[in-house]
Amino acid sequence: MKYQCNNCGAQSLMWEGKCSSCNEWGTYEELAETESSTKSSKSSASHNNSLQTKPAEKLVISEFYNSKKKKGAKAKVDSHSRISTGFSEFDRVLGGGIVEGEVILLSGEPGIGKSTILLQLSDLLSKGKKVLYVSGEESSAQFANRYDRLVGITESSKLEVTTEIDTDAIASMIENEGYDMVVIDSIQSLQSPRSRGYPGSISQVRISGQTLMRAAKDNNTAILIVGQINKEGSIAGPKVLEHLVDCVLYMEGEKFNAFRILRSMKNRFGPTNEIGVFEMTGGGMVEVTNPSEVFLQSDGNASGSVVSATLQGSRVVFIEVQALCVERDGGAGPMRRVANGIKKSRLEMLCAVLSKRGGVFLGDKDVFVNVVGGLNIADPAVDLAVVAAIKSSVKDNPVSNKKVFVGEIGLTGEIRKTVGRDLVEKEGKRLGYEVVTGVRYVGKV
Length: 445
Fold this sequence. Notes:
Strand 15 (305-312) and strand 16 form a beta hairpin. This protein has eleven helices and 22 strands. The protein folds into three domains: 2-45, no CATH class; 80-289, Rossmann fold (3-Layer(aba) Sandwich), CATH 3.40.50.300; 293-444, Ribosomal Protein S5, domain 2. The strands form five sheets. It has a nine-stranded mixed beta sheet with strand order 8-7-9-10-6-11-12-13-14. By secondary structure, the protein is of the alpha/beta class.
């Protein structure tokens, strides 16, 4: 007799109250040997029969090259047939549109707008393509009401919707109906009879993902999969799918902020770390074609406000970095270093460098730094802007909003050149900014 965890699929010869692999409680279920062996023999027989009736396909890469050349197309392996989504910002993040047969995983916090943007996208594509929306979390009537509220249902609406949650049945629909694109909302709602786990468990998600991936590749159907976020803030379940899918997109933004940022974390057919900016409105998502207007809102008359620029994929985005330094009353309690939009560890390092090398003592001050617009920046090019904003706040001396501070700061106080600085300088000069990158040491900022 064997026991199997219905969350992670781990097996044990004896029952355990807590799974030693995933640390979940009460997930072990009895797995009969006869059932396991029968399934194994059936699977083996089926596999052998499939080998006899359908030989494995193979491709000589030079033949692919020659076939492209004969058709007059560019003989490049990366020349894919793409489908425009109707959203230029979405297309930018994907690298020009959805590749036929591509599997895309979209994740984000609950209520961030994943279902909203995919419904709008599905409506746009259904005007010229055959699109299926798998609504595993809503009934057909609920989906229709949301559809009517966001885009409006008309006699010409061609989008198809199903509430089917059986993965094999969905794969069969993809094979028989010839869809151009399928939206799965969400992967946690699907279940496969080949797994004993509950919907949303790792074993169910893994099998469902593999089934959908195979269906996408075999039928040249693009599939967009919604993955939810767990309490730890990471992709729940679909984390095991990241190596299977072709593209991983993450939607971020504050709950009480109207702006949403779509970021590419993995992309086999396009650039990574590309961003698209949207605004959440009562009528759904609206594209923001010039993000710098969103992230630059200062009039330049307040101290502690500095303009910087960061390279997000192929796009130069100008942002506003704000800093506030407050004297600590009586020096009681630990110093506070609060960072929104940059890592706290980065802020603590910059404060230490500024105190040691820049001549601005911060040991008796609380420091607060914020990137306007809710954008999270990992680019070290904003280091110089953070330091300049802190010094401006301490000295109560405003900095011109026509100056753009770009540069990485080292522990010795030197300012280093960052990746893409030439593009930033070129774009800054085109828009009439004075790009500050030539300051050699922090003390001269």
